[in-house]
Write a sequence for this structure.
């Protein structure tokens, strides 16, 4: 089980968290302006990175807040955590 | 080239002559400079595709590239369950095509894949489960796929270790049984396809990792590998959890996420478990291998990863369910657990299709249930590569379905929720 460093609460066990997938996916401001290809890109296409991956987490059974993390998907090590809305730090 | 044929007589003869004179089952060739087609990924799906390309489409100047050893990925890590009782027409056609190939695979390959149609029983624990299961039974029968409804006492009769008392948290209210379903020997599937493909001239190249895909305006031209550049105008990628990585080399983005999926086995015991039992609601699936181990499948971890390991609490969650359903297994010790990386699509159905790059084909997205589909998937993937168009069975399983909204949403219909 991973120990995940919540930026608000500190390290907590993985079972307190839910994983929110790839970070920094911005919902289109005017979805009606998108064609089907662009909409599919937003909804379904993912980087599925092997290496340093920026992803969302939610401390669902703790403080309840969303945050972002950089995690290496080849080791599961957390390299950095940062708050929603912030740019990812250099890993 | 000639290969030894296996039969009961040949086994007895070799046994009596101290097992001398067995041939190697496949060659270990150096890669050639160029092939008519290359399959990336030496699991069951990839080796099978090479076999069917050679056997049914006359392409024999082909290679299978495997970064590790054949069958060492998800083919050797899964729980070997075979069934075809999927809800939707497209899925039923694909998985039943596969099941029909399983039934004669040992004879066709002259290799004992130990296919054992011992029955797959899927439990219902709630009123909702009962309704959904019965809907599955009817949908399957409309598609010519066998499936039948069992009341709890009938389920107990079919699988005596099952606890059907009503004093557990999720009592068994019935079960759907596919008698044609069962298990097979996973390693033998990889080895059988490898041996048969090799005999038709296919080069199986292990320890050969693809590091780049070269293209020109007309499509794929070559693969860069750890064993040099290999030319080919047709490349079929069958790389399971690493498909996004490989296709990324050609600039193709896919609707895939890779998760760890775990399985575990108990210490071996005498035959006690006659079938396969699955439960969606409380997440358990279990069967007994011919070695006597109980083979148990856990769920996927919550996060994407390429580590081929998962968290212990995922396993204990499944064991909680197993112990409640089969109280006499409570004192068993678990012998080993391991993980594989599965590539999951948003609708939990696979992709077997052409890609936007000419000459580049992909067979991926099998998620948590690819083993059962090995022969059928390989068969239609070979067709797609050879003819540059999909077989009618895999025609719905495109990448474009996510753009066009023609999803095959087995996610809502899966046997086990992952």
């Amino acid at each position: 089980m991973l120990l995940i460093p919540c930026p608000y609460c500190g390290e907590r066990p993985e079972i307190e968290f839910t994983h929110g997938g790839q970070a920094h996916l911005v919902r289109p401001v005017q979805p009606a302006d998108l064609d089907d290809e662009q909409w599919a890109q937003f909804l379904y296409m993912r980087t599925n990175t092997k290496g340093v991956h920026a992803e969302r987490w939610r401390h669902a059974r703790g403080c309840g807040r969303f945050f972002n993390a950089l995690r290496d998907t080849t080791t599961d090590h957390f390299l950095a955590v940062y708050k929603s809305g912030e740019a990812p730090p250099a890993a | 080239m000639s290969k030894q044929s296996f039969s009961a007589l040949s086994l007895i003869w070799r046994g009596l002559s101290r097992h001398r004179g067995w041939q190697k089952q496949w060659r270990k060739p150096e890669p050639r400079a160029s092939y008519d087609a290359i399959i990336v990924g030496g699991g069951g799906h990839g080796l099978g595709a090479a076999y069917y390309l050679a056997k049914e489409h006359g392409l024999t100047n082909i290679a299978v590239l495997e970064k590790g050893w054949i069958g060492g990925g998800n083919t050797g890590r899964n729980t070997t369950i075979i069934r075809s009782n999927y809800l939707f027409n497209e899925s039923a056609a694909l998985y039943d095509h596969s099941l029909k190939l399983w039934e004669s695979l040992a004879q066709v390959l002259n290799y004992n894949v130990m296919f054992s149609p011992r029955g797959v029983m899927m439990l219902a624990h709630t009123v909702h489960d009962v309704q959904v299961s019965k809907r599955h039974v009817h949908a399957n029968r409309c598609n010519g796929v066998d499936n039948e409804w069992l009341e709890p006492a009938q389920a107990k009769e079919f699988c005596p270790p099952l606890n059907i008392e009503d004093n557990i948290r999720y009592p068994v209210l019935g079960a759907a049984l596919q008698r044609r379903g069962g298990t097979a020997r996973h390693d033998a599937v990889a080895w059988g396809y490898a041996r048969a493909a090799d005999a038709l001239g296919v080069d199986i190249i292990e320890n050969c990792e693809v590091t780049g895909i070269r293209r020109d305006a007309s499509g794929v031209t070559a693969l860069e590998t750890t064993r040099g550049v290999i030319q080919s105008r047709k490349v079929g990628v069958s790389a399971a959890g690493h498909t996004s990585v490989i296709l990324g080399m050609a600039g193709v983005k896919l609707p895939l996420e890779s998760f760890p999926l775990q399985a575990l086995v108990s210490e071996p015991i005498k035959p006690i478990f006659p079938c396969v039992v699955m439960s969606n609601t409380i997440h358990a699936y279990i069967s007994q291998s011919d070695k006597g181990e109980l083979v148990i499948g856990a769920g996927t971890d919550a996060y994407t990863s390429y580590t081929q390991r998962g968290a212990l609490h995922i396993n204990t969650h499944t064991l909680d369910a197993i112990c409640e359903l089969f109280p006499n297994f409570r004192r068993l010790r678990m012998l080993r657990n391991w993980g594989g990386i599965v590539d999951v699509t948003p609708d939990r159905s696979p992709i077997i299709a052409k890609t936007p790059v000419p000459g580049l084909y992909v067979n991926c997205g099998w998620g948590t249930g690819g083993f059962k589909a090995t022969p059928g998937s390989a068969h239609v993937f070979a067709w797609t590569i050879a003819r540059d168009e999909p077989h009618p069975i895999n025609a719905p399983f495109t990448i474009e379905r996510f753009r066009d909204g023609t999803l095959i949403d087995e996610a809502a219909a899966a046997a086990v929720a992952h």
Summary: Helices of chain A lie at 36-43.
